[in-house]
Every structure is written in structure tokens, then in C-alpha cells.
Q: What sequence folds into this?
């Protein structure tokens, strides 16, 4: 391999066909004159623009179709010609410099074109140099060289993460790895599980309980997650009414009065709430509005007057305080019911964090746009992060996550995308240049993930995500399964 | 002993068994290898591929003018294509300057033969054969090749290094032409160039022999010149206009057979315009065959080959397949560097050094 040219932070390297290099791999450009080494990553591979190639191909295409060609080439020069034809140009991004054995991200120097030697930098060497998997390793899978790849659990601590990729590329699988990895280190994790994929994290693929069984709690709204009105704060209830049930402001004010009245009477329950709304002296339109919301709350099944069947969420949170996953199973729940449950859970979470009853929590939100209200997005990445809610968004629709969230994301776990629009959206992540995202992510095979950000010390790494011995629940139901 | 490379003749093509000079390709390869063997470890200045140009010297380069208008006549001949599945065979060669060493130049030659049989084209490419030609070995190489092909002693002065490339090219071409003449029967054989003989690389007896061999096997040789310097009363031969619509020939009668004491025209001279378009070509037809047979051969060519701008497709393909592309030049340079352990060096371009961006011409 020879260094050909440099433009900005991109270097072009000429490689011959025998030098097998793939996208995402790292190359080390060693300049013996300056005793420095440049770390670059291949983001694109193109054919070298060899002079005369068009004539050559035109001539060959003629022979294929119309002319039968034989060749008497005793010196076998043709093999050298085809070798030149297949030479390629590697487009590499400069990632850092090694000087005196120390790694720095700067690239303010230019290696010699004539003197430099170029060789592959195995990912394991890079990981060691950058000290990527020191500390609390969560094994994600293996690198291209089949060596184990782990990230430090602390790289997720206090961070905002995004797991994204198109359908069936392995996003949820990676999320489960992260969840269990965090749980193993004693971290509390809350999963907003849209499709019920995480509910069997406590079971092995053969259906038996695994080592995580006791640490995984599953709460299903309307089933084992019901609450009494007394457990609910007025502020949270108003959020539900206004944001999930779209109650107008005037009616919300009346509701506040009713709520406080019932609190004073110490009769805050569903039955009394209905009765009070019926008998409350107010405008008929307001009463109708309140009644319709009341029935929505009633029909959600999330609320109960029976204190025995009411769940104590605080207790659940306390159970996972020293390591555990609380799965909020939102599968088979309507949009409104999902929003009600999520409002309550997040409200309770912030309350407990504010009171320092739990130190911090890792929140995994699958397809959050389907249940998270608009105002929560900014809240999660700013205010709630300071309370100790460290969110990981998991989505196959990257445009549903706001641009400012991409900009503030500390880690991005990127799976394959082919759609230009999706790639454009993801490329706004501040942790890496847009070219790397677009070029590498486009060609990632399933279950391969490009890890960007703090977790890899800003050295993007392609990982083959390892298998996980837990019962899969996220599989798509198929019709033709038994018709082979 | 020559360095042992494992080479063999192509399995499908039979080199002309009747030809006494059967050893020539073998000898060609051996000479190529021997010349290359001596450059081990030398510095090598690759030729700039941006300015390469395939080169082949032809005797048509001879500038000749017929001044006296009374001495010749022009006769248009309308043609009628004759479709009878006659095989059309074309031969072309090409050479390229690959680079320079301290002691000489490295060039490569390649030939191509194309057959048009019924509705199919078949092509055989021979080479490339790289040669390292120095002042020391040029005499040996040239003499040996002439001896093998022309059956003349190697006492002839070898051309200058610059011209050696063209001479090698011509030698290969003559050998291929002989091979085709010997192996074809009742075919139309197309040569690139003319039937002018008597130059250093085309002795009269050699070209005559080539034509005779072809005639004996009932072949007809038609030689097409893309560029001619022959002029009639100051006009280029190919610029002569006549009223017959294509396909037609313009026969030029009355030109002298001898140009000088040495140079001879071995063919009858025509201007050919086979299709509509602006191009016409000088066509030489072996003058030893009856006029009618020559005309019939042209009509069979018209009926059995395709034409683009009056030029036969078979000959066009032979040219395409023999020509070196820039990509191939790089490949040959790499082959030489690897096989001979040459060290690539790039000498400063004097023109560039002196004139900067204005120094765009070739070196020298």
C-alpha cells in the first residue's frame, strides 16, 4: 500500500488487489523519518483511476460478446495488467497519531509519501492503545479479526446513547446486551418495552431461568402495574390529562380543584372522582370534557381503587437499586394507555431520583416517539440527565429522534441503513464525520454494528454483535412458517 | 541457457507447420528473455504513459509524387458485394516504448490476427514481448531475428536504438503475415500498410515470398493504408474524387513499378471507398494475381465483412487488439520491475523544470 494523497482529514491510499482491506478497518501509516504513526480508518474503497482502463474494458467487452479471443502470452504479462486493473483506492479518515507510544487524536502533520509504510492496525491493538475496554467491560461481540470486543460500562454512565438501524439488523439484540451488561455491574435499568421483547430476559433460549432471572422485573400496565389515585401526584395526573388526553386548560383548572377537594376530603379514588365531576358546579362543556377524560382513565385499566392490587413502583425501583432491570411492557397497549403509563413511570422516576432514593437509572426507550410526549425529548437530554436518568434511544426510524439529540448523543450504535434520508439524519451525530456514517453504515451486514463515540474513545469500530442466550421475544410473527 | 519460463503454444491455435521459420516465436521469446536478463538490478525510468503512442513504421511512409499527369490514368470501378462465406484474415502489430535504463531502452511488441469466419470473429493475440535493447545487444537481436526470418546473415547494421522498436515490430508483423499466408486457404488476407518493398525491414524478396506463399494457397492479399503520402499532381491519393457511388474502387494505372533502384511497388494501386462517409483508403492488391481475381477478392471482402467508414472490421479489430493501452503499459512496467528486479526512478522532467506549466511538450 502506498500513500497517494491527502485532502482535509482524508487520505487516499493505493492498494493492490492482494492487499485485502475492508471498510471500517484501521491502517497505520508509519513515517520512519518523523518517527510518528498516523492512524487512519478505511471508510470507502474505490477502483483506482488507472489510465487506459476504459479502452481496456471496452476491448474486453467486445471479446466477450462478439469476438472469440485467444491469447498467446508466454511471459504472462496479462496477469500483471489485470492486477493493475484491479488496484484500488482506499479513502481513509485520519483518526489519530501515535508518537512515542502515546496516542493523540491530533493530525497536524503529514507523513512522507515516498518513505511511509502502511500496514493494517488490528482492532485489538487499537483497543489497547486507546484503552477502550479498560474498567468494566461489557462484551458486545467480536471484531473483524475475531478478537473479543468490549466497551467500558462507564462509557454509558451519565451519557445519552442511540441505537439505530433498519429493521432486523440487531438493534434490540444489542440493547439487551447493554441492559444485561449494566445489570451485571449493579446498575438499575428501566426499559420502556414497546413490543414486549425484553420480558423474557430472565430466561435462557431453552426456556429455563437464567442467572438474570431474579434481577428482571416485568410490569405490564393494566395487569400487574395498576395504581390508586392516591399514589399519583397531581402534577403527573395533569400531565397525563393535558399531554396524553389533551384536556383543555380551563377544564384542567377545574380538575385541579376537584382533585384538591377530594384530597382534602381524603376520598381520592376513582368512584368519588366520577361522582364529584358529576356534581361539580361548573360549565356543562367543562363537565363533559372532564367526564370523557375520566372514562379514558377508567378504561385504561391502569387505575384501581383496590389498594391490594395496586403496584408500589417505588418498591420495584428499590428492588433494582443494586442491579436489575425493570421492564415496562407496553406490548398490546393503546397509544393513550402507553402514554399514561410512561408519564407515570417517568414522573415517579424523577420523584425518586430527586429524593435520592435511587442514585441513577439507565433508561432504554424503544421507539420512544410512539409514547413520549414532545416536551419530554429536551427534558430527557437536559434536565432528567442531571437527575440521573441516562437514556438510550432505540429506533429504526432515525428521523423520529430530534437533531439536537443526535448532536448531544455521546454514543451511537449504528446498524445498517440503506436509505439516504436515514443516513443523512444519523450523520448529524456530532461524534463522527458524516462521510464515515454514510459510507460505512450503508454496507454493514446484519448484526454488524458501527460503534461511535465515548465508548470507543472516538475511534469508530465495526463489531459483530455476539449471540445472547436469552429467550427471543421480538421475532415477527409469520404466516408461512409451517408451509415450506 | 535461457531462463526457464513455462510457456507453451496456445492449445487451439496451430502455428503454421509448413513454415520453416516455425521457431521464430520461440526465438522471439528467448530473445526477449535474454535481453531482459541482463538488466537485473538496474535503475528503470518508466516512460510517461500520458504521452505514449503506439508506433509502427511502414514503408508507406515513403513520400512519392507522380508529377506527369499524362503518365497515369484513373478508372472508377463499381463493386458488387459477393456473399460466399470466404474467410477474411487480418494482421496488425503494435509496439510501445516502456521505459529507459542506463544502458538502453525497453520496448514491447504485440501482434494480433483476426479471422472473420461466417458470422463470427476470432482473434489471436501474440505477446506482449518486452525487449531490453542496448547498444551492445541490438546488433545481436536484430541480426538473429533477420536471420531467422529473412534468412540473411546478421551482418546488416542494426538501426539506432530509437528505430529498433519499429524494426522489431516490423519483424513480428512479417512473421505473422507469413504464418497467416501459410495457414490460410482461399481467404482474403488483409495487411495494415502497403505492398511497397525494398526498405530495410521489407526486402523485396521477402515481401515477394510472402505474396507468393499466399498466392500458392489461393489467398489474395489486400493491403490497406490508413495514411498515404502518395500524391498525384500534388493531390493526396485518398483525396481524389470520383463520381461512382460506394462501394467502388478507383484504379490508378500507369504509375512506375520502381520508385528508386531499391524500392518497388509489389501491388496494383487503388483508392477504396466502400461506404458513405468521408474516408477513403489506399488499397494495394498483389499485382501478380489476375486483375479479375483481385477485384473478386475485394467484392468477397465487401460481402463477408462489416465496414465502418470504408475500413474492414476485421482489420479494425486486429488494430484494436494489438494496440497497447496505458493500463497495459503500467502492467508491463510492473512485470519488468518484478521479473528483473529493476529499481524505478523518475528523472526530473527538464521541460517542467525549465518552463514550469508551459513545459507541456515531450521531453527533449
A:
Amino acid at each position: 500500500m502506498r500513500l497517494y494523497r491527502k485532502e482535509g482529514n482524508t487520505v487516499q491510499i493505493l492498494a493492490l488487489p492482494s492487499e485485502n482491506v475492508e471498510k471500517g478497518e484501521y491502517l497505520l501509516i508509519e513515517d520512519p523519518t518523523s518517527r510518528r504513526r498516523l492512524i487512519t480508518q478505511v471508510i470507502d474503497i474505490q477502483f483506482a483511476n488507472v489510465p487506459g482502463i476504459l479502452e481496456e474494458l471496452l476491448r474486453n467487452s467486445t471479446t466477450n460478446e462478439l469476438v472469440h479471443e485467444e491469447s498467446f502470452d508466454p511471459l504472462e504479462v496479462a496477469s500483471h495488467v489485470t492486477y493493475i486493473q484491479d488496484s484500488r483506492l482506499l479513502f481513509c479518515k485520519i483518526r489519530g497519531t501515535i508518537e512515542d507510544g502515546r496516542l493523540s487524536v491530533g493530525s497536524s502533520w503529514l507523513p512522507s509519501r515516498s518513505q511511509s509504510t502502511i500496514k493494517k492496525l488490528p482492532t485489538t491493538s487499537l483497543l489497547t492503545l486507546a484503552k477502550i475496554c479498560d474498567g468494566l467491560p461489557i462484551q458486545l461481540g467480536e471484531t473483524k479479526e475475531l478478537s473479543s470486543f468490549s466497551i467500558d460500562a462507564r462509557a454509558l454512565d451519565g451519557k445519552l446513547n442511540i441505537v439505530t438501524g433498519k429493521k432486523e439488523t440487531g438493534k434490540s439484540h444489542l440493547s439487551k446486551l447493554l441492559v444485561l451488561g449494566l445489570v451485571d455491574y449493579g446498575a438499575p435499568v428501566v426499559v420502556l418495552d414497546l413490543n414486549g421483547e425484553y420480558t423474557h430476559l430472565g430466561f435462557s433460549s431453552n426456556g429455563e431461568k437464567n442467572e438474570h432471572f431474579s434481577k428482571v422485573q416485568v410490569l405490564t400496565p393494566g395487569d400487574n402495574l395498576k395504581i390508586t389515585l392516591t399514589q399519583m401526584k397531581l402534577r403527573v395526573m395533569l400531565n397525563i390529562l393535558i399531554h396524553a388526553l389533551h384536556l383543555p386548560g380551563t377544564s384542567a383548572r377545574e380538575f385541579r380543584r376537584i382533585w384538591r377537594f377530594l384530597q382534602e376530603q381524603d376520598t381520592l379514588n376513582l368512584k368519588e372522582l366520577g361522582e364529584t365531576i358529576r356534581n361539580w358546579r361548573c360549565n356543562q362543556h367543562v363537565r363533559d370534557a372532564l367526564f370523557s377524560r375520566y372514562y379514558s382513565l377508567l378504561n385504561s385499566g391502569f387505575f384501581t381503587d383496590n389498594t391490594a392490587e395496586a403496584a408500589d413502583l417505588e418498591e420495584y425501583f428499590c428492588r433494582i437499586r443494586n442491579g436489575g432491570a425493570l421492564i415496562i411492557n407496553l406490548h398490546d397497549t393503546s397509544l393513550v394507555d402507553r402514554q399514561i403509563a410512561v408519564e407515570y413511570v417517568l414522573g415517579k422516576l424523577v420523584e425518586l431520583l430527586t429524593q435520592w432514593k435511587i442514585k441513577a437509572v439507565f433508561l432504554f426507550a424503544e421507539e420512544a416517539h410512539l409514547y413520549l410526549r414532545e416536551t419530554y425529548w429536551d427534558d430527557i437530554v437536559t434536565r432528567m440527565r442531571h437527575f440521573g436518568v441516562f437514556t438510550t434511544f432505540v429506533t429504526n426510524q432515525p428521523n423520529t429522534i430530534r437533531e439536537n439529540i443526535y448532536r448531544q448523543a455521546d454514543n451511537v450504535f449504528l446498524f445498517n441503513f440503506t436509505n439516504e434520508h436515514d443516513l443523512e439524519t444519523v450523520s448529524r451525530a456530532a461524534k463522527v464525520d458524516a462521510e464515515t456514517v454514510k459510507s460505512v453504515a450503508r454496507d454493514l451486514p446484519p448484526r454488524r454494528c458501527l460503534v461511535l463515540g465515548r465508548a470507543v474513545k472516538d475511534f469508530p469500530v465495526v463489531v459483530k454483535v455476539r449471540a445472547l442466550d436469552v429467550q427471543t421475544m421480538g421475532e415477527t410473527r409469520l404466516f408461512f412458517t409451517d408451509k415450506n | 541457457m535461457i531462463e526457464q519460463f513455462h510457456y507453451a503454444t496456445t492449445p487451439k491455435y496451430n502455428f503454421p507447420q509448413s513454415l520453416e521459420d516455425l521457431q521464430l516465436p520461440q526465438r522471439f521469446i528467448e530473445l526477449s528473455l535474454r535481453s531482459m536478463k541482463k538488466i537485473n538490478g538496474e535503475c528503470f525510468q518508466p516512460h510517461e504513459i500520458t504521452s505514449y503512442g503506439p508506433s509502427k513504421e511502414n514503408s508507406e511512409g515513403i513520400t512519392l509524387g507522380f508529377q506527369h499527369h499524362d503518365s497515369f490514368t484513373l478508372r472508377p470501378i463499381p463493386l458488387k458485394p459477393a456473399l460466399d462465406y470466404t474467410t477474411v484474415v487480418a494482421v496488425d502489430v503494435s509496439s510501445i516504448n516502456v521505459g529507459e535504463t542506463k544502458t538502453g531502452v525497453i520496448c514491447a511488441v504485440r501482434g494480433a490476427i483476426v479471422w472473420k469466419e461466417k458470422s463470427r470473429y476470432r482473434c489471436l493475440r501474440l505477446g506482449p514481448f518486452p525487449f531490453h535493447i542496448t547498444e551492445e545487444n541490438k546488433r545481436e537481436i536484430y541480426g538473429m531475428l533477420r536471420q531467422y526470418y529473412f534468412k540473411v546473415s546478421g551482418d546488416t547494421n542494426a538501426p539506432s536504438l530509437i528505430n529498433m522498436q519499429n524494426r522489431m515490430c516490423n519483424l513480428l508483423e512479417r512473421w505473422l503475415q507469413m504464418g497467416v499466408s501459410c495457414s490460410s486457404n482461399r481467404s482474403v488476407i488483409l495487411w495494415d500498410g502497403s505492398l511497397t518493398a525494398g526498405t530495410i525491414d521489407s526486402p523485396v524478396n521477402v515481401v515477394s515470398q510472402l505474396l507468393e506463399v499466399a498466392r500458392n494457397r489461393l489467398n489474395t492479399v489486400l493491403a490497406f493504408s490508413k495514411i498515404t503520402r502518395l500524391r498525384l499532381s500534388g493531390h493526396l491519393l485518398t483525396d481524389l474524387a470520383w463520381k461512382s457511388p460506394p462501394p467502388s474502387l478507383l484504379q490508378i494505372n500507369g504509375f512506375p513499378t520502381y520508385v528508386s533502384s531499391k524500392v518497388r511497388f509489389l501491388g496494383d494501386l487503388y483508392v477504396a471507398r466502400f461506404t458513405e462517409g468521408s474516408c477513403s483508403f489506399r488499397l494495394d492488391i498483389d499485382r501478380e494475381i489476375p486483375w479479375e481475381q483481385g477485384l473478386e477478392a475485394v467484392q468477397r471482402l465487401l460481402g463477408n465483412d462489416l465496414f465502418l467508414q470504408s475500413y474492414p472490421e476485421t482489420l479494425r479489430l486486429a488494430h484494436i487488439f494489438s494496440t497497447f493501452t496505458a493500463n497495459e503499459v503500467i502492467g508491463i512496467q510492473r512485470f519488468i520491475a518484478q521479473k528483473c528486479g529493476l529499481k524505478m526512478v523518475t528523472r526530473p522532467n527538464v521541460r517542467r523544470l525549465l518552463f514550469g506549466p508551459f513545459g507541456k511538450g515531450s521531453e527533449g
